[in-house]
Design a protein that fits this description.
By secondary structure, this protein is α+β, with helices and mostly antiparallel strands. It is 48% helix and 15% strand.
Length: 252
Amino acid sequence: MKGLDRRDVKEYFEGVVARSPVIVAFAGQIKKDEATRWTRLTFGEREPNRKFGSKGTAAEPSSKTSKREILMSHKTQSDILIGGMATSRTDPDYEALNLLNAILGELGFMGRLGQRVRDKEGLAYSCSSFLNAGLAGGGWTALAGVNPRNVAKAYELMKEEIERVQKEPVEEQELSDAKQNQLGSALMELESTEGVARTSHNLTHFGLGLDYFAKRRQIFNKITREDLQRMAGRYLDDSRLSTVIVGPRLKK
């Protein structure tokens, strides 16, 4: 970083950023002419309606699982991350996998993971999961912040919850709650101009169409508990997941 100067940044912007297709989303009290003028002032003249390039190629998941521990003596808390490659935002698997993730690490207060590891056993300050999906692929991660002395037990319970959704279907009520949660969250996002702009940008970026929310409810209606169990076996199998644990060395 020390070797970079203003010229390097300018050359990169002009050679890469300025030549790439860009989506600019506006929401609120702004006229089209004003938005166009601001965009041209910021990004310069650009080729209209230029198509985006390749979505890229998703990397292949590792053929073997791994577990790594990193010691950081100045830390007072240990962090556990269990994760692996998932799917792209446009893949047909996405919606079912997203609902599964909501049940595992989001619903209520951090889903099943939070209920088991944090609330019931009292082993973690936080324990949840998230799904990050892009154009070419994505990743799924479960994470927990724990007392260093609780690492082994917390890790064991996290693995048990991940394995449980593979062995048995989720409850019907859990699936219904997850669907309502995802639909409701999307509507809440539209309550602010920032949320409207962000949503419009994402729908365009992923090519989902501005009628996506109407279609999404129909997609949800077709997703079953068995679909979520299949997603768990496909993406959360132990052979696809790796673990990193970061924290201090235990004092004897």
